[in-house]
Amino acid sequence: METSASDTKKPIQIEIFPKRMIKPDTVEGLLNKLCSLEGIQRAFIQGPRLPTKVPFGPAVGTPVHHPSRTNVHFGKTEMGLEVLVGRITLELAGKEIMEEINAICEDTLPCGYDIREGRFIQTRQTVSDYAKRGPTADPALYGLYDPKSKVESQVNLLRTNEKE
């Protein structure tokens, strides 16, 4: 098996797992601070989906006005928050910024949190990726497809280290 230059420097994936769900203003502050760091290649937020309509029961079809379903601004991006954020997964170029991430979480998160290292984002193309993006999909987007989301609600933020 051949070893390429990209295999020798594999990215590190970490998961920030707060002890409680994070409010939208805290998510916005955390993402703004994390976006300012160099070395973050991909980011992924997860949590239970906030429904737009009542899915069942006597009020089925009635609009849900959840206070956490707002827009968050980070960097130059505005994104509609469709989940209660329960964990944030980051792919890092190296371990050099781990202390900075830990300090940001300590300052920003009002509750306790855990940071775990492991594999949380797919590194190979999944069946959903192939079905949505085809065989020539960008490898930076592998594993970041949500089958329930609509195309207009997806935000893909990729940071390249290339200088233009």
TrEMBL record:
GO biological process, alphabetically ordered: methanogenesis
Key words of the record: Methanogenesis
A Pfam family: MCR_D
InterPro entries in alphabetical order: Me_CoM_Rdtase_D
Name this protein carries in UniProt: Methyl-coenzyme M reductase operon protein D
Source taxonomy: Archaea, Methanobacteriati, Methanobacteriota, Stenosarchaea group, Methanomicrobia
